[in-house]
């Protein structure tokens, strides 16, 4: 159901020929340049292992550098089409992640009536996909991430002519919220649970941004490691949640270990 990008090969014309002419260090350097995330990635067989500290980020296409893709939501009855620059050299947020597509699809399914006029903040936006969809459907949106992602987010805002309703801000979880971002009515987060040291920081940021009982939070998550449980143990202290049940695609993405949760801040 989700749009995907095609894996790209390394920039060697014929890997087997070129590789033999490089010594090991030079090969490592070449691979690092062409595929900066490779040390963070494991192949599918690692997911089968019961070793919770092995997988840091999920398997993904080998190398995506400076491509522009087009994604349309909702997939079953297209309402909004987003051009998205993707580039893995900006960090793991530089590509479109499955949970981001699921969340984009859900908010597009809810449509303009749901998003129109709402103040919305997305955390860990990466390319900005989810926030761009929210902006294209009438929301006033702040897409946020760490400094290395701000450039690609801004390019994607411009690419879709959404400058009037989507703003880009640096927001490092656990740090003071930017003073020019208002308390949102809706917080969006997709695929933000993957790095254990960031777990308490993300909970802190969500907690500071949300108001008891009134801020809606849509949290789309792909289960990858047993250690993810620790995130939910921390989250539980500040939030309760339930699965979003009115998404017609729920069964499909549940099969891929993706869940869409609605969080509520505890009093
Ligand atoms: C797996 S990516 C998901 C990106 C996007 N939401 C999507 O679904 O395509 C996780 C994002 O969280 C951001 N992130 C990780 N740690 C962060 C932190 N401490 N503060 C702010 N953002 C962070 C990363 O930069 C990255 O863009």
From TrEMBL:
S-adenosyl-L-methionine binds at residues 97, 124-126, 145, 173, 190. SUPFAM superfamilies: S-adenosyl-L-methionine-dependent methyltransferases (SSF53335). It is an enzyme of class 2 (transferase). GO terms for biological process: methylation. The keyword Methyltransferase applies. Signal peptide: none annotated. It comes from Suillus plorans. It is found in: Cytoplasm. GO terms for molecular function: protein-lysine N-methyltransferase activity. This is Protein-lysine N-methyltransferase EFM6. PANTHER family: HEPATOCELLULAR CARCINOMA-ASSOCIATED ANTIGEN (PTHR14614), PROTEIN-LYSINE METHYLTRANSFERASE C42C1.13 (PTHR14614:SF132). Keywords: Cytoplasm, Methyltransferase, S-adenosyl-L-methionine, Transferase. GO terms for cellular component: cytoplasm. Its EC number is 2.1.1.-. It holds the Pfam family Methyltransf_16. InterPro entries: EFM6 (IPR033684), Methyltransf_16 (IPR019410), SAM-dependent_MTases_sf (IPR029063). Belongs to the class I-like SAM-binding methyltransferase superfamily. METTL21 family. EFM6 subfamily.
């Amino acid at each position: 159901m989700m749009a995907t990008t095609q894996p790209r090969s390394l920039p060697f014309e014929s890997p087997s020929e070129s590789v033999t002419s490089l010594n090991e260090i030079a090969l490592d350097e070449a691979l690092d340049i062409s595929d900066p995330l490779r040390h963070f990635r494991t192949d599918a067989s690692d997911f089968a292992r019961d070793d919770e500290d092995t997988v840091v980020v999920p398997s993904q296409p080998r190398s995506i550098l400076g491509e522009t893709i087009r994604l349309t939501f909702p997939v079953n009855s297209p309402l909004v089409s987003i051009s998205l620059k993707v580039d893995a050299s900006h960090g793991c947020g530089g590509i479109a992640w499955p949970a981001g597509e699921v969340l984009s699809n859900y908010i597009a399914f809810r449509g303009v009536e749901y998003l129109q006029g709402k103040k919305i903040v997305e955390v860990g936006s990466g390319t900005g996909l989810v926030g761009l969809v929210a902006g294209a459907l009438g929301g006033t949106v702040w897409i946020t991430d760490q400094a290395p992602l701000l450039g690609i987010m801004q390019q994607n805002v411009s690419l879709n002519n959404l400058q009037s309703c989507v703003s880009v801000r640096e927001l490092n979880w656990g740090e003071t919220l930017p003073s020019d971002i208002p308390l949102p009515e809706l917080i969006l987060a997709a695929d933000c649970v993957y790095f254990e040291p960031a777990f308490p920081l993300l909970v802190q940021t969500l907690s500071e941004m949300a108001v008891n009982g009134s801020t809606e939070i849509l949290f789309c998550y792909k289960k990858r490691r047993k250690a993810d449980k620790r995130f939910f143990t921390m989250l539980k202290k500040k939030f309760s949640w339930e699965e979003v049940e009115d998404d017609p695609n729920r069964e499909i993405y549940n099969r891929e270990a993706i869940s869409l949760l609605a969080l509520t801040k505890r009093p």
